[in-house]
C-alpha cells in the first residue's frame, strides 16, 4: 500500500503528467455528460430504454455507454469512425493510391486522416437514418413532419459523432493514452457497476445462491481477466542481428534485437466480424417469418446454443487468420530488415527470411485464434449458468479484450513518463507492456481498439 501511495505522489509531482491526466478526465466527463443529452425532437419519457440492449445493438449500446438506448446526441458514438478507419486501412492494402499515401510518412498519414473523417460523415449520416427508423418510436417524436425530423436528427447525430471524434483526438494530443480507445472503454465501464448491482441482487435478495456463489463469480471474473491479459500480451520474439557499420569515429549496429510478433496480431477485429455475421440469421428471420421459425435459424439466433457457439468459434478462427494475413506483411518486414543490414541468424536474407517469418506467424496464429474463440464464448457459458446477461458480457468477448488492452496501453504511457523522470515504475518487478505493435501490410498499425 505504501508503494501505491508513493507512486501516486510521484505522478502528481510531474506537472506534464498531472496536466495530461486532468485533461483526460475532463474530456471524458464532457463525453459522459453529453451521453445523457437527448436528441432534439425526441420525448425521453416515452422512449423504451430496453430497446437496443440485446444482440448486436446491445453491443453497440455498450460501446456507446448507454447512449444508443437513450437516444442521445452521442448515440452512435465513435463506431462510425472505427468503421471508416477499417475501410481506409483495407483500401490501403487493395488500392495503390492509398498504399502510396501510407508510405509518404507524416503527410500521407494526414491525408489518410482526412479521408477517414470524410468517410465518417457519410457512414454516420447513413447510420443515423437507420437509427431513427428502428430505435425511435413514432410516439416519441415531437416533430410531426417525418422529413424534417429525419434531417434534424441525422445532422445532430453526425455532429455528435464528429464531436466525440474530436474529443478522442484531443485526449490523444493533450491527455494520456489513445483517445478513441479510452472513450470506448469508458462507455463499457459505465455499465459495469449497474451490472454488478443487478447480479448482487439476484444472488442475495432473490435467493439465487447467496454470497458464496457471488464470490465464486467474482473470482472467476478475475481469472478470465488474467487469462485475457496473457493473450493480449503474448508475443513470440524473433532474434535479429544487425551488421556493424563504421561512420566516422563511431560504430553502429553489431547488436542483437528482437521482432515481437503478437500471438493475437488481429486483436479484437475477428470477434467483431464474426459477431456481425452471427446476427445475419436473426436479420433474415425478421424479414421472412417462415424462415425465422425453422429450427436452424432459431438455434443460430440463440447465443446460448451449442450450434451458435461452435459456428461462432469457427468464424473467429477463420477471421483471425484472414485479418492477420492482410495486416502483417512478412515481405515488407524482410525488405526493411535487409535495407537496414539486419538478418535472422541461420536464415538467408530476402525470400528465405520472409518465408521464415510467415511460418512463425502461422504457427502462433492458430493457438491465438483458439484463445480468442474461448474468450469470445465465455459470456455465453456464463449466461448458461444463470449469470445476469449484462454482467456475463464482462466475462469475455469484445468488451473485456478492449478493456484489458486500453488499460495496459494507458498504464504503459504513465509508466514511461515516470521512468523518463527517474522515478520507479508502477511495479516493483518488471515493466508494464502494452499491446505490442507489429509492422502491417502498409507500414501502419490496425485501429487501436
UniProtKB/TrEMBL annotation:
Keywords: Cell membrane, Membrane, Protein transport, Translocation, Transmembrane, Transmembrane helix, Transport
InterPro entries (alphabetical): SecY (IPR026593), SecY/SEC61-alpha (IPR002208), SecY_CS (IPR030659), SecY_dom_sf (IPR023201)
Principal location: membrane
Cellular localization per UniProt: Cell membrane; Membrane
The keyword Transport is annotated on this UniProt entry: yes
Keyword Mitochondrion: no
Transmembrane segment boundaries: 21-39, 71-95, 115-132, 148-168, 175-192, 212-232, 266-288, 308-328, 364-385, 391-411
HAMAP family, A to Z: SecY
Subunit record text: Component of the Sec protein translocase complex. Heterotrimer consisting of SecY, SecE and SecG subunits. The heterotrimers can form oligomers, although 1 heterotrimer is thought to be able to translocate proteins. Interacts with the ribosome. Interacts with SecDF, and other proteins may be involved. Interacts with SecA.
Family statement drawn from the similarity comment of this UniProt entry: Belongs to the SecY/SEC61-alpha family.
Record's protein name: Protein translocase subunit SecY
Amino acid at each position: 500500500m505504501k508503494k501505491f501511495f508513493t507512486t501516486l505522489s510521484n505522478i502528481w509531482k510531474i506537472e506534464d503528467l498531472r496536466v495530461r491526466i486532468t485533461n483526460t478526465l475532463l474530456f471524458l466527463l464532457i463525453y459522459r455528460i453529453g451521453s445523457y443529452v437527448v436528441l432534439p425532437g425526441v420525448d425521453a419519457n416515452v422512449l423504451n430504454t430496453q430497446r437496443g440492449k440485446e444482440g448486436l445493438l446491445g453491443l453497440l449500446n455498450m460501446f456507446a455507454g448507454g447512449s444508443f438506448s437513450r437516444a442521445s446526441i452521442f448515440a452512435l458514438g465513435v463506431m462510425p469512425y472505427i468503421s471508416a478507419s477499417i475501410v481506409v486501412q483495407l483500401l490501403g492494402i487493395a488500392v495503390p493510391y492509398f498504399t502510396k499515401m501510407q508510405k509518404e510518412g507524416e503527410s500521407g498519414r494526414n491525408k489518410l486522416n482526412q479521408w477517414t473523417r470524410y468517410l465518417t460523415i457519410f457512414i454516420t449520416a447513413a447510420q443515423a437514418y437507420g437509427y431513427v427508423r428502428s430505435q425511435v418510436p413514432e410516439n416519441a417524436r415531437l416533430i410531426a413532419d417525418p422529413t424534417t425530423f429525419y434531417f434534424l436528427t441525422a445532422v445532430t447525430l453526425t455532429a455528435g459523432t464528429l464531436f466525440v471524434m474530436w474529443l478522442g483526438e484531443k485526449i490523444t494530443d493533450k491527455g494520456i493514452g489513445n483517445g478513441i480507445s479510452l472513450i470506448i472503454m469508458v462507455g463499457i465501464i459505465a455499465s459495469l457497476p449497474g451490472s454488478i448491482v443487478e447480479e448482487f441482487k439476484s444472488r442475495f435478495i432473490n435467493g439465487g445462491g447467496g454470497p458464496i456463489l457471488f464470490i465464486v463469480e467474482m473470482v472467476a471474473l478475475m481469472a478470465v481477466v488474467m487469462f485475457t491479459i496473457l493473450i493480449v500480451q503474448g508475443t513470440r520474439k524473433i532474434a535479429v542481428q544487425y551488421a556493424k557499420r563504421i561512420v566516422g569515429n563511431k560504430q553502429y549496429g553489431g547488436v542483437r534485437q528482437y521482432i515481437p510478433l503478437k500471438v493475437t496480431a488481429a486483436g479484437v477485429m475477428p470477434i467483431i466480424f464474426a459477431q456481425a455475421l452471427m446476427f445475419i440469421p436473426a436479420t433474415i428471420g425478421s424479414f421472412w417469418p417462415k424462415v425465422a421459425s425453422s429450427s436452424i435459424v432459431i438455434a443460430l439466433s440463440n447465443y446460448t446454443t451449442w450450434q451458435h457457439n461452435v459456428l461462432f468459434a469457427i468464424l473467429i478462427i477463420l477471421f483471425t487468420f484472414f485479418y492477420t494475413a492482410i495486416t502483417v506483411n512478412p515481405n515488407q518486414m524482410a525488405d526493411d530488415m535487409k535495407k537496414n543490414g539486419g538478418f535472422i541468424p541461420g536464415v538467408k536474407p530476402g525470400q528465405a527470411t520472409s518465408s521464415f517469418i510467415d511460418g512463425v506467424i502461422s504457427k502462433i496464429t492458430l493457438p491465438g485464434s483458439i484463445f480468442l474463440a474461448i474468450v469470445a464464448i465465455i459470456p455465453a457459458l456464463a449466461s448458461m449458468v444463470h449469470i445476469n446477461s449484462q454482467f456475463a458480457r464482462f466475462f469475455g468477448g469484445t468488451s473485456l479484450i478492449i478493456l484489458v488492452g486500453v488499460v495496459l496501453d494507458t498504464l504503459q504511457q504513465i509508466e514511461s513518463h515516470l521512468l523518463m523522470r527517474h522515478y520507479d515504475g508502477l511495479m516493483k518487478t518488471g515493466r508494464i507492456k502494452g499491446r505490442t505493435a507489429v509492422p502491417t501490410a502498409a507500414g501502419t498499425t490496425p485501429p487501436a481498439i
